[in-house]
Write a structure and sequence with these properties.
The chain has one domain. The strands form two sheets. The chain has a three-stranded antiparallel sheet with strand order 2-1-3, with no helix packed on it. It has a two-stranded antiparallel ribbon with strand order 4-5. The chain is mainly β. It contains no helices and five strands.
Length: about 100
């Protein structure tokens, strides 16, 4: 959600850790969100890891709080869905849980 009166650019990155403890980050998508509006960005066909060693990073232009993200993931029969509310890396006010994780 873009809470400003100017367009905001959002980059979506996929971060993953290998079994050798090596981290990789790869870009998935970049979009422009119109002022005072929201967008849905589908992220299909990504490898899931049972040990939760992968993350999504949303980077946006603008000041703190200008863009808020929410991640909603659908899974199989044992894990139907997971939803994480937005977190702004530039702000210390994130519900006292940083980083956010489904493991917490």
């Amino acid at each position: 959600m873009n809470f400003t009166k100017t367009p905001q650019i959002v980059s979506v990155l996929y971060a993953s850790t290998t079994e050798q403890n090596e981290s990789t980050i790869r870009p998935l998508n970049e979009i422009t969100i119109d002022p005072l509006s929201a967008e849905i960005i589908p992220l299909a066909d990504l490898p899931a890891k049972e040990d939760l060693t992968n993350s999504f990073i949303f980077r946006a232009t603008g000041r703190i709080g200008a863009v808020q993200t929410r991640l909603y993931a659908k899974g199989g029969p044992l894990l139907k869905c997971v939803e994480l509310l937005g977190k702004d890396e530039k702000s210390g006010r994130n519900g006292n849980q940083s980083p956010w994780s489904t493991a917490n």
